[in-house]
Amino acid sequence: MAKKDQTPPFPDGQAPGKGKLKLIIIIAVAFLLAVGLSVGGTWFFLSKNAKPAESTEHAEAAVPGKKQAVYEILAPAFVVNFNQSGRQRYLQVAVALMGRDQAQMDALREQMPLVRNQLVMLFSSQNFDSLVTPVGKEMLRQQATSSIQELAKKATGQLTVEQVLFTNFVLQ
């Protein structure tokens, strides 16, 4: 009877719960180490990228030859319609002009009816199917930029508009 009360020895010499406890502790330590490395790595890379951005801001402001951008927002937004396969389609575009010289932008503002007319004609001559793609939108923006630059060169004698930007673009 005394032999039945004795527990048989385990082959590895450990009690039955100690192996599982060690495994749980090792998994918990590995998890905490992974979380710590993840947080530390994220902090390192974010703080590393933040410093050069600040220095480039100061470097752009320190460059004497490059003026700060001046924006002229053309309000109201342009709305043109298309007739595609018997179905009426619409395009709404909000446009901003970017230049570097405020005096030249003011001179161009006097020619705003010509600028708006040029853009309306350009937008209404487009194919709806091409404007659905990002490439088509970029091509339209580049066409608008070259068209307005040509008009501004005639009006002011200088390259007044650096870029035409679309601040809102809706197709329906």
From TrEMBL:
InterPro entries: FliL
Transmembrane segments: 21-46
Membrane topology: Single-pass membrane protein
Locations listed in the record: Cell inner membrane; Cell membrane
Record's keyword terms, sorted: Cell inner membrane, Cell membrane, Cell projection, Chemotaxis, Cilium, Flagellar rotation, Flagellum, Membrane, Transmembrane, Transmembrane helix
Family named by the database record: Belongs to the FliL family.
Role of this protein: Controls the rotational direction of flagella during chemotaxis.
Protein name: Flagellar protein FliL
